[in-house]
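Archive entry. Fields below.
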Amino acid sequence: MTETSIERRSGVALWRQIADQIRQGIGAGLGDETGRLPTEVALAERFGVNRHTVRTAIQALVQEGVLRSEQGRGTFVVRQPRLSYPIGSRTRFSAGLEGQARDLRGKLLDHAYEDASAPVAEALELVVGAPVLRLETMSEADGRPISRARSYFDAQRFPGFERHFVRTGSITMAYRHFNVGDYFRRSTTISARHADSADLEILKLSPGAIVLVALGFNVDQSGRPIQFSETRFSADRVELQVGGAGFTV
Amino acid sequence: MTETSIERRSGVALWRQIADQIRQGIGAGLGDETGRLPTEVALAERFGVNRHTVRTAIQALVQEGVLRSEQGRGTFVVRQPRLSYPIGSRTRFSAGLEGQARDLRGKLLDHAYEDASAPVAEALELVVGAPVLRLETMSEADGRPISRARSYFDAQRFPGFERHFVRTGSITMAYRHFNVGDYFRRSTTISARHADSADLEILKLSPGAIVLVALGFNVDQSGRPIQFSETRFSADRVELQVGGAGFTV
DNA sequence: AAGGATTTGTTCGTATGTATC
DNA sequence: GGATACATACGAACAAATCCT
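PREDICTED_STRUCTURE:
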């Protein structure tokens, strides 16, 4: 379903283009049943480049944890299927990924009380400058970084929200302390871009990696906005699932 | 909401990274109300690079049609807001983008009758090797390439489907000739990756560009699968919208 | 058990592209 | 525009680990 091709003088180094193609190819079943890649010489011939260039690409992917090289034996795919993250009216981090990973956890990286900027104020239906809580979080599945998120909450309605989140490790549980028993995802807007330096560090990606960006907008049972967030998923580790698979749209 | 950052020794030339950031920044409102970019000197300072490097980036974007430079006046954004493509149970190309562009059209690039591969057969609930129709299409909004898609249909249920599509320019209309009055999007799986060479050519992208990949799965009113497709959207031109904005989830 | 073939790992040198000043 | 520094890519040769006969 994907053709291989390399563009010279494109501003993107050949080794990076090759690394990207190999990374893609893995999802499409590159490598035989044992997970073994073609030899470096074969790959060099196939891409029309020197063996060194292929080696640089492979080293980047080894660094990333996608491949594993063994002298004398070959280079092998480290099997790590992409997590499927459900998006729908009941979107929640923990509930969606259960069964796909043994160890799921959310971490609070940072938090601050700020004055709402125009887009944040509009999303939360507050006035510009109203106090809001900004939460910087990240999530891991079996030790692999999956996503990072920046979320905004009405600081007057949810004072000390971050403490409840830290104690329970869950947004859903933290809401309970403010009598929000249930809540819904009103809308999600999905785009994609290159990872910035903060993404690279937090999600442990290599330069040039892609992130899926989901702008989410949650409301409580009465339809009042309670959360506005931007979540960035590592595009190599996650796909977003809308509908199907027996969950409520 | 997005930090600007440039990575040296990343395998991506600085001018390309800067071009990517400017392209993204345009969607986020970079440039003042007249669409004028900061001066080359200011941009160079902001990105921490030499002015020549910024010039190379700008020249690439001018070539791409995103910017326009005028000697003595400045560099200006050619306004082209990102289209918002709704994804839900009633996902249709034409209906979703109405009002966002004046001229919407779908083109048939290629078609062929083939034997179903394993994943296609599974999605359409056919046996492996059953005859299927493969359609290669693309779509444009006001002359800009928006997406390309590869779709599979049960060839026995929809013989000559491609002719009806060519005549009407619409999948929805083509279904009518086979007594499928209505149909639904059962599920959509979204991922992102670097554009391959076919993407670059068909969508008129530059190397290193990102595509949003949506694996979609349509069923008729009785719940029988009727279409399986992979659509690739230019991530710079389109965002995907799930829920909200007054359309049925 | 021995040795040749295969495959990855390392080290030279050279040319070109990218970015700075 | 020209000089300089560094990253990228190529080519050739050899070392080290593994596999197969």
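CURATOR_NOTE: Chain A touches chain B through 56 residues (CB under 8 Å).
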